[in-house]
Protein: Beta-1,4-galactosyltransferase
Amino acid sequence: MGLSSVILHLSYKFRLLLIFILCMMVVAWATSSYLVDTVQETPKAKSLVENFRKATMLEKENQKKKAMSTVEVHTVKSTMSHCPALSPYLQGPSQLKFKASLTLEEVQKENPQVAKGRHRPVECSALQRVAILIPHRNRETHLLYLLEHLHPFLQRQQLDYGIYVIHQAGNTKFNRAKLLNVGYLEALKEENWDCFIFHDVDLVPENDFNMYTCDKQPKHLVVGRNNTGYRLRYQGYFGGVTALTRDQFSKVNGFSNNYWGWGAEDDDLRIRVEMQKMRVMRPSPDVGKYTMIFHTRDRGNEANGERMKLLRQVSRVWKTDGLNSCSYKLLSVEHNPLYINITVDFSMPPKIS
Ligand code: UD2
Ligand code: MN
Structure:
């Protein structure tokens, strides 16, 4: 082998080496640029992932906040939804005072929160919607005293209530029971009342633990009053103030419409209640206490001579004498600040056969 061929041979090997080195460099460059790219890309990806995470977290937080606010709304609503079974404002027994010079304006001023005879608690939703029905004629002073005491009393009991005074126009014989039927029918025209309190105008409750709400059975709220030594007058006594649900009252077809003048319409209602297998409930004697404002028998409300005869026929007539046969001439419905005044005209009582 001559020198020239050795050089040629070497240079061939050298060229191969050169090509190999070049290839290696290309590979090294490609790899390094890829690596560099990856290294540079990582923070981008990282920030992308980070941003996504942030976004989802934000979304989750928003959802959480939304959920929280719904919970808040629900909480507000749920505290709004029920007043406690026992109101925290009850005061117990009280000594009632009746100021001779009291005026309607004064009572209105003392009760600015009452509008159109109605009120309901602002802090919670009342357990029952209660209509107080008061039969009335020519007893303005008694009505004033009753309104003065009853509004704060019912508010302390946290009730959603309305006071209806059903006024008998003219000089026809007074008919307490029929007036109360009218009150029930008219009151239901403006509100879906749950409970009805049938209330004499001259009886003022002394103890606000005597709840003006309805129960599973009809309630008689006057266990005793001042002028009868706070004792129950007789076993089946159902007069003065009673509480019946809408359904209990409709089940007995309300009061009879046929008791003109004083007496026994309350006993008639008790018989109806018992005929429907309902049982009269009463509060305890220390709670069911009333002051009856003194009065004598009114003109136009003389004792009803037919009352014993009427009492004997309840089981025969109750289905056709009551709410479903109560006809009257409605003269007016006025929404006064402290009560709703319903004035009705009853034609002369028909002769009882
Ligand atoms: C008893 C009963 C009463 C009723 C009555 C017999 C009690 C406490 N009360 O009341 O519920 O059964 O006997 O009918 O046992 N009224 C007027 N103007 C009148 C007449 C009556 O507004 O001219 C109203 C008023 O709401 C009065 C109610 O009718 O409170 C009952 O009449 P009452 O007070 O003269 O009869 P009283 O006290 O014997
Ligand atoms: Mn009375």
